[in-house]
Specification:
Largest sheet of chain A: 6 strands, mixed
Structural class of chain B: mainly beta
Order of helices and strands of chain B: EEEEEEEEEEE
Strand content of chain A: over 45%
Radius of gyration of chain B: 13 Å
Strand content of chain B: over 45%
Largest interface: A-B, 23 and 27 residues
Structural class of chain A: mainly beta
Shape of chain B: globular
Radius of gyration of chain A: 13 Å
Number of helices of chain A: 0
Oligomer: heterodimer
């Protein structure tokens, strides 16, 4: 399975601190994506990083990808209470149409 | 318009009922997906449509039947479901398969 595995499973930090979540996967990928989900409703796409990219930024988000280690990390800087959510990585394989989600990290940011 | 609209938001159905979930997008996306999500678990891929053709069926039981009437609509027909099928059903679309996906808010299904 190419499903991503994330750690930590849960993370609790104070507002203003940085949050780092990691994702590991098993097979070759076309791209890796990060999503946020609030309160068990729809997911929101955060960032997509392609297999030939090493780092991407979007606002307070920084994503890295290490294809040699089959791993990615999501850094949220200067976290806010509104960042409280579940964060999932999702991998899109090199063949076919599948995008498979990892187990997710539940982030809680205390005000 | 960057929305994916799912109806209904909530659905309670008996095990002998037939119901349908609907999903609509007007972003011109050619890939559409159904995912199933249980509480505190990641979304699990069920079906992928690409250019209105079923491309992936992740060994989903036949009591779930997808349909893509046109490039904007995706339905999921439900029949003879089991209580363990209770979950959040999410529809998503992307410009092409494996791309950035836009998700609807989901239908919370309870089978009684």
């Amino acid at each position: 399975s190419q499903q991503g595995e994330e750690d930590p499973q849960a993370l609790s930090i104070q507002e203003g601190e940085n949050a780092t979540m990691n994702c590991s996967y098993k097979t070759s990928i076309n791209n890796l994506q990060w999503y946020r989900q609030n309160s068990g409703r729809g997911l929101v796409h955060l960032i997509l990083i392609r297999s030939n990219e090493r780092e991407k930024h979007s606002g307070r988000l920084r994503v890295t990808l290490d294809t040699s280690k089959k791993s990615s990390s999501l850094l949220i800087t200067a976290s806010r209470a509104a960042d409280t959510a579940s964060y999932f990585c999702a991998t899109a394989g090199t063949g076919g149409f599948k995008t498979i989600f990892g187990a997710g990290t539940r982030l809680f940011v205390k005000a | 318009d960057t929305e994916v609209t799912q109806t209904p938001k909530h659905l309670v159905m008996g095990m002998t009922n037939k119901k349908s979930l609907k999903c609509e997008q007007h972003m011109g996306h050619r890939a559409m997906y159904w995912y199933k999500q249980k509480a505190k678990k990641p979304p699990e891929l069920m079906f992928v449509y690409s250019y209105e053709k079923l491309s992936i069926n992740e060994s989903v039981p036949s009591r779930f039947s997808p349909e893509c009437p046109n490039s904007s609509l995706l339905n999921l027909h439900l029949h003879a479901l089991q209580p363990e099928d209770s979950a959040l059903y999410l529809c998503a679309s992307s410009q092409v398969a494996r791309g950035e996906a836009f998700f609807g808010q989901g239908t919370r299904l309870t089978v009684v």
